[in-house]
Amino acid sequence: MRTFVAVLAVLAIAGCGGPEPKVVEVEEADLLRPECYTVDLFDPFTIQNPPADMAQEAHQFLGVWKNGAWDGKWCHDLYITRVGADGSVDVLDAYGPFRAAGVEATVFKRTGRLKDGVLTFHTRGGTVQYRRDGEYLVGTRKGTLGNFEIVMSREDDVAIGEPVMLARAVTGS
């Protein structure tokens, strides 16, 4: 498991002295947000088997990625449903509401590119990139709403090649 290192101090101006920076190690798992919720997908989807020449790289990305929030504030799920022989990738890009920016919860169908271990796609508001880091999917988003980072974990019970239906159960009367 990779550890992020955060420096928690303002660096002293050269030659002026000052306190040494305090280094705090943060485990990636500590950045997950299991309470995050985006939207229910009411239409079934299928995670497609990848082509043989993309199998190893594609399997690292294919699936449902959850429990993440951009900068710990904006809930996000990513459904990577297909990787083509040319590196093209189909995703369902789901977001919870982001009240600070006036954005409602929504999901988009997008096409991206997987190359050299990085999944990249473009939105109306910028560029999003993801890479695998051990068991996690780590992302950066740069655009009109700002620059954000995220760590996500894979949903374990999603099979490749079979229709999937994920939705929260409605309880109560």
Describe this protein's structure.
It is built from 1 helix and 12 strands; from the N terminus they run βββαβββββββββ. It is mainly beta. The chain has one domain: Lipocalin (Beta Barrel), CATH 2.40.128. An 8-stranded antiparallel barrel has the order 4-5-6-7-8-9-10-11. A hairpin with a 2-residue loop joins strand 8 (118-123) and strand 9. The chain is globular, with a radius of gyration of 18 Å. Residues 1-16 and 169-173 have low confidence and may be disordered.
Keywords:
173 residues; mainly beta; Lipocalin; 8-stranded antiparallel beta barrel; disordered C terminus
Low-confidence stretches: 1-16, 169-173
What is the annotated CATH architecture? Beta Barrel
What fraction of residues sit in β-strands?
Answer: over 45%
Q: Using the CA coordinates, give the radius of gyration.
A: 18 Å
Largest sheet: 8 strands, antiparallel, barrel
Number of helices: 1
| CA-based shape | globular
Strands in their spatial order, largest beta sheet: 4-5-6-7-8-9-10-11
The chain-level mean pLDDT equals: 81
CATH class: Mainly Beta
Number of strands: 12
- CATH topology descriptor: Lipocalin
Separation of the first and last Cα atoms? 43 Å
Counting helices, strands and paired strands, the structural category is mainly beta
| Fraction of helical residues | under 10%
Q: Give, in order, the helices and strands.
A: EEEHEEEEEEEEE
What is the number of domains? 1
